[in-house]
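chain below, 141 aa
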Amino acid sequence: MGDLTPQDEQIIAALAARSSDLRAVLCTLARVGVAWRRREPERARAWLARLETHPFYKGGQVLFDLLEWEDFMLDGESPEPDPQQVFALVGRIAEWFGLPPPPPVTLGGLPPLEGGFYLYRDVLLGVIDLGIQPIRIGESP
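prediction:
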């Protein structure tokens, strides 16, 4: 096995940067989901109950588990939210489902991740909360 070239190192560095971006987005969405689950536990539970049998939900869960994103997300301190990246992703998801674009909201005051609760569900709740029913995170309802 030979040494890596400078171009190889550049590609590996770019992959590491994209991994950091992905982790920041996933952790932020999960924290938004935790906030919604705490604020409206019955409504969040009802959303999950309705979605659990849907193929998109199941496919997402399989990919989440296969890629071991829960371990990836919990590896170290939660990164600071990057609203631009989060809303770019949520906007693409909303567009794909034919929903209006979500208006950006404040992402301050988010609770920490809850590793004991299945993080896929929190990420999904975060996408729903930001994409379908935009709110001001960190403010009283």
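Residues 6-131 form one domain. The first helix runs from residue 6 to 39.
thats it, cya
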